[in-house]
Amino acid sequence: MELNGRPVSAGELSGLALYGYGHFTTMLVTDLRVRGLGLHTERLTRDCAELFDAELDVSRVRELVRRAARSHTSPCVVRVTVYDPALDLGRPGARSLPQILVTTRPAPTAAPPPVRLGTREFTRDAPGVKGTGLFGAVRQRRAAQRDGYDDALFMGVDGRVSEGPTWNIGFLDGEELVWPQAPALEGVTSRLVGGAARALGVPVSTRPLAAVAATRMRGAFLTNAVSGVRPVASIDGVDLPAPELVPRIAEAYRELPGDPL
Question: Is the pLDDT of residue 33 over 90?
Answer without folding.
Answer: yes
